[in-house]
Amino acid sequence: MGHVIGVRAAGEALAVGVVEGDRVVGHVRRYPEEGGRSDSLIEMPAETFGELLRRQIEQAAAGADIEAVGIGMPGIILEGVIAESPNLQQLKGLNLRALLSGAFPSTAILILNDADALAAGIAATRGQLDKVTRVWTLGAGLGFGRYPRTEGIWEAGHCVVTLDPKERFCGCGGVGHLEGVLGHRAMRLRFLDMEPEEIFQHAVEGDERCRNFANLWHRALAGATASSIHLEAPGKFYITGPNSKFVETGLLHLYLHEMVKMSTLQGSYFEVIPTPDEIAIIGAAVNARVKPLAGRM
Ligand SMILES: [Zn+2]
User: Which of 124, 158, 182, 185 has its CA 20 to 30 A from that of 87?
Assistant: First the structure.
């Protein structure tokens, strides 16, 4: 049995680790290296990115055989191809799996959505791989992850939560999207005079405009969660990412209860949790180890 390697390629950084069971063994490799001189991923051409990834994986394996590699990245991944890449736009269209399969011909390679990797990592580290785990990631954009992975697109961050035609702040350009309310970039566009931290601080202090927005923000997240409950089932929803610090869990539960009334669908709740890189690395590796699903690889 060779190593199983998990990679998180989120934001503008890579984190790579060897995973055994539900934990990372040894240290997590990072790119750009702390204090080192590294090229920015933002400007890196797709081929160079693939080459960098290959080198990082090879170095993490340290000469051992590699049984499987899982790579979690933001965007839509279809059968190993990066179909949409909101942060590193130059990667759109890159067949990352084919590129890495060339370098590691006897290794199972899985490219998956970063939020799905997080969901699997949360499930694994909590000993809940037998349960459905759903997670919202609140950052520059909005992610929704699910474990076990299922077929489909699952871009729940872009689900429509308002019919107001003036709600057009989503990074994808779509009107009325969840990310258009909750996304970091969207909040900066809406409040040109304030950073998100200031908006929520003023909301707590009672500023009416900020309070109204903070309420809308929570209603939007509750609404998208209610949709997931009505489509799939009630359950536990984790919330993570840098902007999860703005979540008032009590308010979220209140709004959710207004939105979900059928008795069969009761019993959902939210938990805000930190997700260090290790969680995504473990989740990517956990998914790479299991038999790939048709349609969402
Ligand atoms: Zn959108």
Answer: 124
